[in-house]
Write a structure and sequence with these properties.
mainly alpha; about 150 residues; 5 helices
Length: about 150
């Protein structure tokens, strides 16, 4: 994506950039983006905020957000449901929806940047996440939501 989008009469490109700057201001040193200053983060909403950063042109900050996912991914490919800014786990629940969403974010980052190298770097993380989700399928093929 070469330009910041806008929606005539609803949201200007400047307002998109301002929104991106507000999200980037929340990002902590680890790359995590909490819901609010000092708040928790869940990987699904974290991906959403990384996608918003890309739309607003904050690609470096988006990449830091994805690196946080690389750094916090569990050995089995999953992530806990909620993390605090200091890195502690707030809720030790595993959710297939939360864990699968990294694939959407990495695809979106590719569409915004065309950076194949970064996609290649993130691909093992995406594969492990999706393998974990596929391991949560029931006999009828539907995934368990959480455990």
């Amino acid at each position: 994506m070469s330009t910041v989008p806008h929606l005539e009469g609803v949201l200007s490109a400047d307002e998109v950039v301002q929104s991106g700057a507000a999200i980037a201001a929340l990002q902590v040193d680890s790359g995590m983006i909490p819901w609010f200053v000092g708040g928790h983060c869940d990987p699904w909403n974290h991906v959403e905020t990384a996608m918003a950063l890309d739309v607003a042109g904050f690609h470096d900050e988006a990449e830091r957000a994805y690196e946080w996912l690389v750094d916090t991914q569990r050995a089995d490919g999953s992530w806990w449901n909620y993390y605090l800014p200091d890195g502690t786990v707030e809720e030790a629940k595993l959710d297939t929806n939360v864990c699968a969403y990294v694939a959407t974010g990495v695809w979106h980052h590719w569409l915004c940047t065309w950076d194949r190298g970064f996609v290649d770097h993130l691909w093992p993380t995406v594969e492990r996440a999706l393998e974990w989700v596929l391991g949560m399928l029931k006999d009828d093929g539907t995934p368990l939501w959480a455990r």
